[in-house]
Amino acid sequence: MKNLNLALKAAELNYIQVTTAVSTAILGVSYPPSQGKFSDDVSSIMKSITAFLAAHESPLLVNVYPYFSYINNQKDIPLAYALFNSKQVVVKDGQLGYKNIFDAITDAVYSALEIAGGASVEIVVSESGWPSKGNGTPKRPGKNIETYVFAIFNENLKPLGTEQNFGLYNPDMTEVYHVEFPN
């Protein structure tokens, strides 16, 4: 990241931000969200990455998949909590209440960033199977979270299983399900 940033500066492309994308598997602790911290295996490198991002005011790209959290822990994670359908708080964390796991995972990463010295580092959700536009998370209310849909098309050439089926459209351009995108 440092070398890429130096190359961009040398080419007078200072306006291009350098960042990286991470999976939420980097979290050693994610519950409750306020206790989120990076796993010991990646803590050192994440401190370096966090320092770089904070110094350059670049966001951390995070792949947040409520689906995988739910599918790997159906005993403890209600489906409504994974689908943004819970009408009540499912996880109470101090003064914060979580009605969906997307917000809880995102805030766990914010907590891990704070521990690593990156309280000012913003998160951009770079991948999600179930993206959402809302009013921020309980830790960052009123803050919209930039989110990217993964993926536009189902990927029928991937090995059989769920990984093939995150798209909004089939390869033949027929809708898997209808989604209204705001203007």
Helix/strand layout:
Elements: H1 2-10, E1 21-23, E2 27-29, E3 37-38, H2 43-56, E4 60-63, H3 66-71, H4 79-82, E5 91-93, E6 96-98, H5 101-115, E7 123-127
Parallel strand pairs: 1-4, 4-7
Antiparallel strand pairs: 2-3, 5-6
Features:
alpha/beta; TIM Barrel; 2 domains; two-stranded antiparallel ribbon; 5 helices; GH; glucan endo-1,3-beta-D-glucosidase
Tally the helices: what do you get? 5
* Element string (H = helix, E = strand): HEEEHEHHEEHE
Q: How are the strands ordered across the major sheet?
A: 1-4-7
Kindly provide the name of the CATH class of the largest domain: Alpha Beta
Mean pLDDT: 90
* Structure classification: alpha/beta
How much is the radius of gyration in Å? 18 Å
Number of strands: 7
Q: N- to C-terminal separation?
A: 34 Å
Number of domains: 2
Report the major sheet.
3 strands, parallel
CATH topology of the largest domain: TIM Barrel
**Known CATH architecture of the largest domain:** Alpha-Beta Barrel
- What percent of residues adopt helix (DSSP H or I)? 25-40%
How would you name the CATH homologous superfamily of the largest domain? Glycosidases
Based on CA inertia axes, which overall geometry fits?
Answer: globular
